[in-house]
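User: Okay, second chain of the day. Same drill as before: sequence in, structure tokens out.
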Amino acid sequence: MRSMTPRQAPRLASITPVRIAEQLRAELERHGIAADVNDGYGLAVVSVWHGLVVWTDGLNLWWRVGWSRRRKRPIYAWHPASEPPRAANRIAICYANLRAATAHQ
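Assistant: Same drill. Structure tokens below.
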């Protein structure tokens, strides 16, 4: 039997992008990070901080982590939507880095 990649995994009817986004928001709250959830057009967005927005389609979470000067485009990190606590840990690190960077400006 062939294994499925995260993008090919079947979506359960009860798992919606907004439900995943709300789970992520709750996990971020445990880190002391306030966030807002918005949804539409089959995606949900978690607004964390200026420059830190997390999108989900219900299967994956992704957020911008940098800029490629060579390719002239953003660099994104992604995490399976089935693991909101682990994704929140990674996003909390990005949040702390952004807060520290803006404090020094």
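The chain has a mean pLDDT of 90.

User: Thanks, on to the next one.
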